[in-house]
Amino acid sequence: MTVGEKKVERLLQALIEDLINGVEQREAGYRATDDLGLLPSEQKYLFKAKIIEKNSKGMVRFKFANIETRKQFKSFDLLFKQLDYFLKNKEVLDADLQRLENASKLLENLVKKLKDSQEHWPKVIAIGWWKMLESSALPSEVDEILKEGFSPKDWAIKTVQSSPQLGIEIANRVGKIDSSDEALSLFSELGLRNMGEVFIPFDGDNGTIQKIKKVLKWNECVVILTQETIKMLGLFWFSLVVLEFANLLPMIEENSPRFIGIIWTNVGALFEKDQLKLIDDLKQNLEISPLQQMSWTTDVFRIPEAI
Amino acid sequence: MTAIREPLPRWRYPDTQTLSSVFPSGRPPFAPFPTVTNLVNANLCPVAVYHDLLHGLDNALMGQYPQEKRGELFQKFIAHLKFAIRNGSLTLTGYDIQTQQGRIRTHFLSFAQREGFSLNEAGDLWREYVEPYSRRKLQNGELINISPSDQFFFEISVANDHIPFALDAGIRNYPLRGRIDEIDFTNRRIIERTIKGGSTDNTPPLLKDYQVWLLAKLLCSLELNQMPSSWNGIRFQDFSLFVETPFNDFPIPFDNSDFVTHTHYSYAWINDISLSESPRVNQEVFENAACTPVNPHPVCAHPFINCFVHNYPYPQSRPEIRQAFQPWYRLLLWEQKWKGHLWQYQLLLLSRQELINRGLILEARMVSSSGNQLEIEIIGRQASSLRGYEYCTIIPYGSVFCGLRINARLIRVRGNNVFMEYEDNRNIISHEVLLLPSEISPPIMKEPLTFLDRQTQSALFRLQHIGADNLNRAQQRSVIQLLEAIFGIRPIQRE
Q1: Nearest by Cα to B168 from B255, B270, B261, B254
Q2: Does the CB of A305 have a partner CB in chain B at under 8 Å?
Q3: Does the CB of A143 have a partner CB in chain B at under 8 Å?
Q4: Cα B406 to Cα B442: distance, rounded to the nearest angstrom
Q5: Half-sphere exposure of B209 (CA within 13 A, CB side)
């Protein structure tokens, strides 16, 4: 690398450093020419070649708006990519940080409600379990499905339609709840819009639900689950659903670990356990042998993949 | 180097029942059959191996196209050059170095053009890679001293299901497969060749030393009957390991306790990402990433391309898209494990007779070879019933554990003899051949097309990240509108 290139690299690095440190784009990257060791002749050349620009104080910075310079300094490819990341993502990065903060507040509010009163639990479980069952598509042995008169296609449709009802049933093991509409009212109680318009439960007919339960040996399975497991799974899925509907999921993948951390922290605070203990307890209950013998349970009774 | 991860108590191999399963389904109850590339990625960064396994993104250190193609050409040409000198089709003796280089150059330019490179590009490649390489090798006499009795093998595929790695006072066994660039029997060297690296480097390109070390461990773990019969009595433990760049040959020590430790960590990452049911794994992968947007890795190909991507504000439903896609990546990995990885385990763990009975391999005998065509007699089966073998892999030399694998195409059948056309103009060494279904075969083949699942994974990953910077552009791009329509669940809020 030539001396001149080294100086341009330094200017590029200065611009990136400033952007990382939150300096506004229009002010970022300006440095005194003496600090950079730029000779007047070099300055003149770089300015003429539109590689640098000056501010009113006579300070210079890398002229990032001139995309031609990228061709000239191909060896700085990684720096240019880094520059673009901080230039173009700033708005989304800032918005995402706000999202994470709001997500944290919303979950804290939910945890407080659940701590203060048991009456919200059935609603959380009904919605959480509904979404957990629906997203799993309740996989089962093909022979068993056919035996109860379902075609594989029917099974896929009917199980999705029956998920809200199965969610209500399991919620009734913890408290009293009659319908999905009642469960959905929790959204308004958390200060969110009523999601009834976009969150439409199907009315699975009772006969079909009984057949589905027979295929899955549902009653034998759920009776093994402890109240804590039912609550824990319900809360994990409900948290994800409520944050999704509140538009509080992170846009940026790199923020996912922080987002996941927020959910675990709040669930942990409610159950007064750390993450490892929560996982261990859940695993212990789900690994009881009758459940393990059912091929479908590990693919259904689970924490959301995103968490 | 590898993020620390508790070594596994044992590698989870498929059990006998799984090895025999006819209609597998659901979560595969075994760990993948890793490649050396998987291990190198895991050693580099947990996110790199996460991308590899779940997003179908290959070697984080390989670089983007066309760099990959250039590396392939370089390796192919060195093999071609050495064979040409050995066979006498290229004579170098009796000339000065400058003339010798001129002859090699002519050879290279026509070789590169046959491989689909333009003359201009071939010229660039000559100057950047082949010229410094050949100059060095002419100066040290390596090329000029090649004699007709010299033995070297290129692109030897190696695989073993149980490779022992020391751990505390005991060992752990893991499976591994890979391909060795060159085994030079005359000079007793195992070589990993690359176009990376500069003239002033005093260390090998990142993790190339680990790569050749892994391949050597793999080769040394094989038993005599798993190697080509003519290799009997060869002790690969006594061979030297080298990383060859255009500018340098780096000797790599065989004993390296750090590499052993990193290998345990790497296997643990591969296992946990692909098999673990712990919800903490994803979080831990990203928490242990080797770099951040502030300190990007200087060599890895992922930063700002697959990691720290540009976050377009549209589609607004990107979080939901990500959430919806996440299980799909895993399901596509399961598909690969059931199809490709299980097949790899079967090849090495089942007996030869079981493999034949299951139709996983066919036994054959070479009748003749001419140009890039082989005439092969099928043993114990009617050639006319060869459905699914239109494209296949032939091992003309060696075994499923260690040998030369070439891809071939069925061109005609006569009686019980089949005529196959293979893609490379290599020397066919052995008359014993095994006919294997290929990894790159049309759908009628028995061999699963795992590369298609990887392509689906990478296509999904690209789709997950497409976007537009403003509403106007987003409204003009039908893909974005379609994604919003499918995954958007907040239409009322957006108004």
Answers
A1: B261
A2: yes
A3: no
A4: 16
A5: 19
Nearest chain B Cα distance for residue A115, angstroms: 25
Nearest CA to CA, how far is A114 from chain B (Å)? 24
Question: Are A134 and A43 in the same domain?
Answer: no
The answer to whether the CB atoms of A139 and B26 lie below 8 A apart is: yes
As a whole number of angstroms, the distance between CA B24 and CA B341 comes to: 13
Q: A101 and A81 share a domain?
A: no
Find the domain containing A131 and state its range: 92-300
* Residue entry with tokens 């296509």: B459
> How many structural domains does chain B have?
2
What are B240-281's pLDDT values in tens digits?
999 999 999 999 999 999 999 999 999 999 999 998 766 678
Between the ranges A43-57, A104-118, A175-189, B237-251, where is the mean pLDDT highest? B237-251
Interface predicted TM-score (ipTM) of this complex, two decimals: 0.80
Same domain for A75 and A102, yes or no, is no
In a domain, A305, yes or no: no
Report how far residue B7's alpha carbon sits from residue A43's, in angstroms, rounded to the nearest whole number. Answer: 56
- Residues B294 and B424 reside in one and the same domain: no
**Who's near B32: CB < 8 A, 6+ residues apart?**
B38, B53, B270, B274, B275, B333, B336, B337, B341
Domain residue limits at B377 = 361-437
Chain A hits for B312, Cβ within 8 Å: 92
Please list every residue in chain B whose beta carbon sits closer than 8 Å to the beta carbon of residue A252: 311
Query: Can you give the pTM of this predicted structure?
Result: 0.87
